[in-house]
């Protein structure tokens, strides 16, 4: 009987010795985590407020009477939606919204096709003057877009593409493809060469390897290119306003700029048009945010 009680007493003493240590460790961990979370909250909360404030002001201004934009309180005493109806009809919003939508969609498709094909070629294929061509394409990123407006304008005029949406697409795709190619090359370079070699041994062509093996693995990179290109093209103003002289061919952003007057501006109508123009950007990002985050953090963890 005593032999049976001795191991039990030894076990209880060992548990009593280890329990305070483990409890103190757990308590210390619990004490450290809330402090870190609290510090991060106080650090990030002002940044969030600072970033959200312009959008809140934009939304509230679009819903308030015009005579209370700068004289009334921050939160309007009365809300009205007349500015949205005015913005919808005064600038032919549906027409220019459709122009922006199809121009942006065509640009995203064109840039994605060129960027993925060229990125795969520069990352996984061997061909003459590979590095030279890659450096030449990268040098185009060093030229500011504003410095190229006059040469591009004259070039489109000589080709007969001035004042056409096709000419604007040529500028958008050719100007955005090098950066997207550089981004996709970095994604394709992270993929193991053994997958491509195994597909080649099985008899697959390079196009089949690209479409069935490589491209599905690079979905985060493709999503990153799509979001970046959609934002850039949808919000582009300078090239569209320079190349297109016909008002019916203009995308949405140059037309919204016409709502700003020289001496006075109808701020509720302008902000209502801007709120409506933000909706496609929000929908695209919400739809592809998981792939976008995965693409941005792909190089952080291996």
From TrEMBL:
Segments of this protein annotated with the region Disordered: 1-29
Domain of life: Bacteria
Domain annotation ABC transmembrane type-1: ranges: 97-288
Location in the cell: Cell membrane
UniProt feature, compositional bias: Low complexity: 1-26
One annotated Gene Ontology cellular component of this protein: plasma membrane
Keyword Transport: yes
Pfam families, A to Z: BPD_transp_1 (PF00528)
Alphabetical keyword list: Cell membrane, Membrane, Transmembrane, Transmembrane helix, Transport
GO process annotations (BP): transmembrane transport
Transmembrane regions listed in the UniProt entry: 39-60, 101-122, 134-154, 166-188, 209-231, 267-286
Gene3D superfamilies: MetI-like (1.10.3720.10)
Membrane topology annotation: Multi-pass membrane protein
Record family assignment: Belongs to the binding-protein-dependent transport system permease family.
Protein name: Carbohydrate ABC transporter membrane protein 2, CUT1 family
Organism per entry: Microlunatus sagamiharensis
